[in-house]
Amino acid sequence: MTVAIQALDQLLSAMQPTLEPEVYVYCIWPLDKSWHGPLPLATFKEKEGLTLVLTEQQATEYQLDILFRARWISLTVFSDLEAVGLTAAFSTALAASGLSCNVFAGAFHDHILVPVHQAEAAMQALQQLQQSKAY
């Protein structure tokens, strides 16, 4: 297994943003019901309900109300979960370009969900950030 990277300059120069092809959506599922649908990309339990991040097709098939349509960008660098500054750096770069982002961290990579209409601009901003930190 590859060693997780902790140094911010190395993370930024190696982050390799990748835009996934599908549209993903945020939906809410009641906490008093068990979710028996497809495995979501992500979930988050809040007192108001269970946030599901699913493909738009899955949400439509299950007749779920869609709160937000997004494209998924993965940073393919193996980021250490204790690394400092990566989220701040890419969210600042996106904000400077007037772009919204919603962030999830997995055990290996960081993931960004951006509004569908901002996906290409977000990729450009992330690639510019990466190139500015390349050795």
Keywords:
single chain, about 140 residues, alpha+beta, VC0802-like, 6-stranded antiparallel beta sheet, 6 strands, about 30% strand
Explain how this protein is built:
- The chain has four helices and six strands, in the order αβββαβαββα.
- The protein has 135 residues and is α+β, with helices and mostly antiparallel strands.
- It has one domain: VC0802-like, CATH 3.30.2130.10.
- Strands 2-3-1-4-6-5 form a six-stranded antiparallel β-sheet.
- A hairpin with a 2-residue loop joins strand 2 and strand 3.
- The mean pLDDT is 96.
**CATH T-level topology:** VC0802-like
Tally of distinct domains: 1
Number of E-type strands: 6
Helix content range: 25-40%
Termini gap: 24 Å
What's the rounded overall pLDDT mean? 96
How many helices does DSSP assign? 4
CATH class identity: Alpha Beta
CATH architecture: 2-Layer Sandwich
Shape: globular
> What's the main sheet like?
6 strands, antiparallel
Please write the string of helix (H) and strand (E) elements: HEEEHEHEEH
Supply the CATH superfamily name. Answer: VC0802-like
- Rg: 16 Å
For the largest sheet, list the strands in their spatial order: 2-3-1-4-6-5
Uncertain segments: none
Q: What structural class results from the helix and strand content?
A: alpha+beta
